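haha ok so turns out i had the wrong file open the whole time. this is the CORRECT one, sorry everyone. sequence first:
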Amino acid sequence: MLSDDLRALRDGLAEHRSHDGRLVLSGTVTSLVELMLTDCMRQARHLEAAVPAGAVTITAADLASGKVTRMPVVPRPRPQDGGAAS
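then structure:
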């Protein structure tokens, strides 16, 4: 998952940070960081492409197809005093 990749990248960079905040990476670690960032960018592009372009409208045909289901209406909980207490 993207969050796991980013967390691993953050932890890996923290291991190579000096006491004054400078980042010292070997060539191998630099290549690994570059690979991880490239993968994160790819995943971000896929997430951006999956976002609907506009408002989503569910039609009767969508409900009839079975791919979309309507969630049940659940009554909201009410306080015992009817909400009069403040």
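The chain is about 50% helix and 0% strand.
again sry for the mixup
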